[in-house]
Amino acid sequence: IGYDFTQLETVLQAIASHPSLTNKKTSKPIGLKLPPYFDVPHFQSAARIINKYKSTISYVATINTIGNALSIDYKTEMADIVPKGGYGGLSGSAVKYTALANVRRLHEFLDPEVKVIGVGGVSSGEDAFNMILCGASAVQVGTCHWTEGGKCFERISNELTSIMEEKGYKNIEEF
Asked: What's the distance, Cα to Cα, between the start and end of the chain in Å?
């Protein structure tokens, strides 16, 4: 629904009018994971709709994978991704700069009540710092966890803390 703005509005309207959400605020935040946008009018359209439902939608996570990617292992001469004939979503470091731009644009266009979660290519404290600098309230680590395991979280956190100390920041809100 992320690229069909009429459907996005229909779905958000249905969520916002759900009986469990009317007359009271839910104790659990509700968010959306958005696809990557590439043109300013798409950011503006998505943000305009999401802003209408800011009392229901607490956050957006951006970006989801960039679809229709194909990776070939030259040694085996076969696709790296087994299902769907080798086609799949591009993620990790390959999407980092698109993710940063999406975080920044959505941060610019969304009401401040709607938080932005930075997703895509976070594998170091510097990557996390850049996401937060672009407007992310939090970051998601996916591909790095897949390749490195759970130890990546402490490493990334320590690297981010070192960057903050080096720059004289006491908390994330300062940058």
From this structure: 33
Residue with tokens 């209408």: 52
Gyration radius of the chain over CA positions: 18
Per-residue pLDDT, 20: 78
Q: What would the pLDDT profile of 4-39 be if each residue is shown by its tens digit?
A: 999 999 999 999 998 877 655 556 889 999 999 999
Distance (Å) of CA 158 to CA 13, 128, 131, 155: 41, 11, 16, 5
Instruction: Identify the helix (H) or strand (E) that includes residue 49.
Output: helix 40-52
Among positive and negative, which fits the CA dihedral 59, 62, 65, 67? Answer: positive
Neighbour order of strands in the sheet with 115-119 = 30-34, 57-62, 115-119, 138-140
